[in-house]
User: Which sequence fits this backbone?
């Protein structure tokens, strides 16, 4: 294990963390402002990935594919918010789990009906197919660099939106004290519809960007949902800043765990034990991180509610 | 419940039990042998759901990791089979015991948190168990583990009838159901409901809230482990998929569909869900979405679950 390998893994972790942030940002705002647990957030991520993969294949333009994926998903999310989510705000968390689980079932069948059961093979855009020589001895896939750049740009944009605009002020007011914000005349319903659509757009963007480097298949939404939930719990529910820090932490811990734990264990344990234990510990790492954070700070790293 | 036939409510459970017990005997005459296995699965899942209904419906503990205990039970059976044991009773007892221990450890940590954080931390522990199972290659890892020789239930049981396992499952399910119904209405059950409705007050009244909750959590975990052990025998196969978070969510969904905190909620929800699933699968590849629509209908039109709907109907008829 040399320094270059470590650096490469850190970059991978950064990219994965930033994609997790795109998914978690919407989830944490919806959760924080309207106290609504939306398990179907992963389905929006899946929708983004599928639309992007098909449009890219049909039009050969990756930028167009990403734009269409975000637009379509935002439209679907707006309908979903109007028909279902809007009626769930004041209900119990368990009822929200029940309803949004129902949406997952419907979404998975809809994807199956439209695009079939077989996983789609999404290709990287031709211009970014090759590696970039970052420095001597470290070629790095240029597409993964695009992921990191896009992730950082969106994170910065979201930071400015939340902290420096009027809309962002309303969003923060809603997240920190919904009732008080309502008393002060904020139309929280409209803010929430906006936030839900924004979150859906970010999830779709993550789906579209992740499509070429992950498998686009039914169930991908359920698989990414759990790490995203871990991120928002670690970061503090409702806090975008918390989600950012936690997403990078989870991305790095998860990637580092997979890359470094198995070889490290092989060095100290008998091979047969290490072969079993390494992957297990790597898969578990982010949950251990969450349990540790919750033990020390029960409301997450950056509690949004005072 | 007050209805026109005051004896019916008392006799109905026995009637259902008698019908279920007789089912394997008359099933072959109607060509329904396949469904004996199906009903057996419904009964096993109902055992797990009943235990979840106990902590969730009566105790207010929204655990989203119950499938983890089912998995611990199932893998305990695998471990015992791998070690050369062949007694079914030892395997199932071991499954319950190990799952109970796991629940004690997980509950001790999780029950210090509340609300969404409790949901998330139980989920996290179940995910840890899932990844542990995926990577344990000695027990099949990702591919799962086949149990090729059926476990022995004892000489006079094994040879008696082809469906003897069905009746064993039915007896265990009836026992578990009766036990939880009884406990739910005992002093302990009342205290648990008090904690669900107002934990602060129960603390002020001097109840050892944390210990009471932990006791319920351990009992429910052990029973879920027992269901996992039975499921291992039923499928003759154990895989990490049993512990995937969607399985925990499904169990929760079935309990809420039936009626949270209602005596008949868990078995009703499980029977309804699995029957619909089976019927839909027979007719179409797209069997998920109707179930999804059903969930939305339940959320908006019958939030108390199907059991409450039936009770209300019974009540209305009595008033007429």
Assistant:
């Amino acid at each position: 294990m040399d320094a270059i390998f470590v650096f490469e893994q850190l970059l991978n972790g950064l990219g994965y963390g930033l994609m997790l942030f795109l998914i978690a940002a919407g989830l944490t705002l919806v959760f924080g402002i309207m106290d609504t647990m939306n398990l179907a957030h992963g389905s929006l991520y899946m929708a983004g990935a599928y639309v992007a993969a098909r449009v890219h294949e049909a039009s050969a333009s990756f930028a167009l594919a990403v734009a269409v994926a975000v637009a379509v998903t935002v439209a679907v999310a707006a309908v979903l918010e109007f028909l279902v989510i809007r009626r769930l705000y004041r209900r119990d968390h368990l009822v929200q789990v029940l309803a949004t689980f129902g949406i997952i079932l419907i979404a998975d069948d809809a994807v199956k009906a439209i695009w079939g059961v077989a996983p789609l093979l999404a290709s990287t855009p031709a211009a970014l197919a090759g590696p970039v020589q970052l420095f001597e001895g470290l070629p790095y896939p240029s597409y993964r660099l695009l992921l990191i750049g896009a992730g950082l740009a969106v994170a910065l944009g979201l930071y400015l939106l939340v902290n420096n605009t009027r809309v962002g002020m309303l969003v923060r007011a809603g997240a920190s004290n919904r009732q008080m914000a309502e008393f002060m005349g904020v139309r929280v319903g409209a803010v929430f519809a906006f936030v839900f659509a924004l979150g859906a757009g970010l999830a779709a963007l993550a789906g579209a960007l992740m499509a070429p480097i992950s498998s686009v298949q039914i169930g991908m939404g359920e698989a990414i949902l759990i790490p995203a939930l871990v991120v928002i719990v670690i970061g503090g529910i409702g806090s975008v800043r918390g989600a950012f820090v936690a997403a990078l932490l989870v991305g790095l811990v998860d990637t580092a765990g997979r890359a470094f734990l198995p070889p490290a264990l092989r060095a100290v344990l008998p091979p047969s034990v290490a072969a079993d234990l390494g992957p297990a510990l790597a898969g578990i790492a982010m949950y251990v991180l969450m349990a540790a954070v919750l033990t020390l700070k029960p409301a997450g790293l950056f509690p949004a509610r005072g | 419940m007050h209805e026109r036939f005051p004896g019916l409510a008392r006799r109905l459970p026995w009637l259902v039990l008698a019908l279920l017990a007789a089912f394997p005997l008359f099933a072959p005459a109607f060509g329904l042998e396949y469904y004996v296995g199906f009903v057996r699965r419904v009964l096993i899942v109902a055992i797990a759901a009943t235990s979840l209904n106990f902590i969730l419906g009566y105790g207010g503990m929204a655990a989203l990791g119950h499938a983890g205990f089912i998995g611990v039970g199932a893998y305990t059976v695998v471990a015992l089979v791998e070690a050369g044991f062949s007694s079914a009773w030892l395997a199932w007892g071991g499954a319950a015991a190990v799952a109970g221990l796991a629940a004690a450890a997980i509950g001790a940590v999780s029950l210090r948190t509340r609300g969404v954080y409790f949901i998330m931390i139980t989920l996290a522990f179940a995910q840890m168990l899932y990844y542990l199972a995926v990577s344990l290659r000695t027990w099949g890892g990702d591919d799962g583990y086949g149990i090729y020789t059926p476990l022995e239930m004892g000489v006079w049981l094994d040879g008696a009838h082809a469906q003897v396992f069905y009746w064993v499952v039915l007896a265990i399910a009836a026992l578990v159901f009766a036990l939880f119904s009884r406990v739910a209405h005992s002093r302990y059950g009342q205290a648990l409901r008090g904690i669900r409705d107002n934990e602060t007050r129960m603390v002020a009244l001097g109840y050892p809230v944390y210990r009471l909750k932990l006791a319920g959590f351990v009992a429910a975990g052990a029973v879920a482990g027992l269901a996992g052990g039975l499921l291992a025998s039923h499928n003759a196969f154990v895989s990490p998929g049993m512990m995937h978070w969607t399985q925990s969510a499904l169990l929760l969904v079935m309990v809420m569909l039936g009626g949270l905190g209602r005596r008949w909620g868990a078995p009703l929800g499980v029977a309804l869900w699995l029957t619909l699933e089976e019927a839909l699968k027979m007719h179409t590849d797209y069997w998920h979405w109707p179930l999804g629509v059903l969930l939305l209908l339940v959320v908006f039109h019958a939030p108390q679950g199907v059991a409450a709907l039936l009770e209300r109907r019974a009540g209305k008829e009595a008033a007429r």
